[in-house]
Amino acid sequence: MISMMTATISLPGWPSELEAVQQQIDSGHYTQAQRQIHALLNRENAGQTTADLSALAFEAERMRRIEMDFPLTPEELLPAIQRYVPDATQEDVDRWNAQGLLESMLIDGQPRYFVRSAYNLMHLSDEAVARARDSKRFTDKAPLYRLHPHHREILESDAPVRQRIQVTYTLTVDSDAVPAGETVRVWLPFPQEIQRRQVNIELLATSPAAHQLAPATQPQRTIYLERKAQRGTPTEFKVRYAYDSLSSHTEIVPDTVKPIAPSDALAPYLSERAPHILFTPSLRALSAQIVGDETNPYRIAQKLFAYVDQIPWAGAREYSTIRNISEYAASAGHADCGQQTLLLMTLMRINGIPARWQSGWEFSPERFDTMHDWGEFYLAPYGWMPMDVTHGLLDSENEAERWFYLGGMDSYRLIFNTDYSREFTPAKQHFRSETVDSQRGEVEWRGGNLYFDQWNYSMEWQLLDSPEAN
């Protein structure tokens, strides 16, 4: 049984073979890489460790996931775009492609386009949006991505604004995805108790009733359930809980911000953490370009935040297919919330500003909700404060409103994770579907992991002072 949470860049003791395979994959030579992986996995007495074998096996799985994310041939791309832009022509597609707006991979010499290329075009091209039929960008549907009365309520309040939220989360495994009689093992994300941000967590029900709740200190907290599969019947798991979400806002006076004193407590949030937080030459150069000669830590944070905010949002490929997410976000021409957050964290750490991850779900005063990633940063003497670069700068002449999400947070959050790529309790035995985040859940049986195409999920939420569920 091979256990692996994340794919590594290389492994000591057996790096050359793994690196050769990775280079083949990154060059698009999938068939050749698959043959080499098969040969290496079946080679006897080669001194491979379990970690070596796991890393190789995941490279094969990575290729499978990439091919699922990039299924469109050049011939299929135009019809996909015409569902949004009916009058689009091949000349339009060629132009948008030349502008780098249509994400693609070269697989065995053939270009393959991202499954959400047409949808993402609506977020990357004003021209395409102007010609589109009834198309709304993601942020057009999200009330808190623009200045909202809720932001002003927080800024004007003497105490945190509080929402009591009830959640029912359901994960359903497809019929016959697991043989009848076998045990299906599921990890559903579960909220963390976080002082001044998320409190009074109450587990109301699970189905099945037997469960194992991870410790409150688990960085990626889950509730574990298992159930026997039945032939011809979906296997359903459900959890219901309630909690209080609290707003946060700190008024930062730039001249009072001081350089931090070195400490063991802050050291992990200032350092590199492969593979997604690396101080590469290109990111160091980008940091220097953004920051210039600024020395005030808060002003540096503002410059970095504003830069990452201007990277257009677009739907993301699965994180497990990306070798270095912060580098990807800096170079792809677009990024989603987690990619933006990891880039901002990396740039902040390069500049001596501690930064760390948070993620879960976001709700709203209206009906909008989505999975979401954001973070926290540390300034002396203020301590840890939230940051959400995907919400970014709000359109206001008022400085407190404009910079609300650099030091502030709304009260419509559900926090599952205070770090990324951390182990579960109990430990997962097979590859994770999501190797970085934990928002949808994870599923496996003794025969292996069940990827996202083998199950689905639903999130229902309700403000407890409101009768309407979402």
UniProtKB/TrEMBL annotation:
Residues 329-391 form the Transglutaminase-like domain. Signal peptide: none annotated. This is Transglutaminase domain-containing protein.
